[in-house]
Predict the structure.
Amino acid sequence: MPNPVRLQKILAESGVASRRKSEELILAGRVAINGITAKLGSKADPKLDSVTLDGHRLQPGGELFYLMLHKPRGYITTMDDEMDRRCVAELVKDVPQRVYPVGRLDRESEGLLIMTNDGEFANAMMHPSHHVSKTYRVTVRPRVTEDQLTKIAEGVEIEGRKTAPAEVMVLGEEPDRTVLQIILHEGRNREIRKMCEALGLETARLKRTAFGSLKLGMLPPGKWRWLTSDEVNRLRDAAGLQPLPEKAVFSSGKKYQEQPYLKTGTGRESRSYRTPAPSLKMKSYSRKASNNRK
């Protein structure tokens, strides 16, 4: 017996987008049911009907795939592009199931990008109420001041709204630039670049090095690997989700061995600017000096 459900639910469970974003895809005429362009409010039975997005058939309720990609600079975070620009879909062609990015990295940014067909997982990772952290290595010009660091940590007003508190650490300094580690707990569009611009800083390079407990490690640019069940469950736990279902897939496809990350001291002072979790009101700062500082 047919059991039709709303298209937004089918798209969300297929990992395409949130239900709200799915409505935009339907209105744009990119979704079809059995070859006929769908309308907002349309329903389909995922077991009986063929639901497609841009001509690709969706498979809600099937096997779940989780992977991480080291996105290089010059690629846009989308599965297709009308302007024929390079997109991350080209880098995961050998994945046996169509997967979608969790969040975005802009064209000139690089680093860790999670991809999956688990819509519930993807939406939970990006929902601001879950505060799943994202860590970035950011090179800015010119050299950053103490006041600018404090403002990044406390929040910067962009587009009429103040950013959430962030954690900032100085990793290295030169006369004309500073390398920072910035940890965000929200996911506003181009947030770091806009914060830096508002403070008179140019973002020369931006690389995401971690997403929650998941670290990029030594995965080469342009390559991907499957996430382990432990890695996915740690992320799910951080977002308040139940442990992985049995239909998750981890064992097939390319794998790349991660090597320990080697870090050398610069002889400079390392400074950390930290604000507590959003539920706390007090702000704390920490400062750690290197033993071989000149």
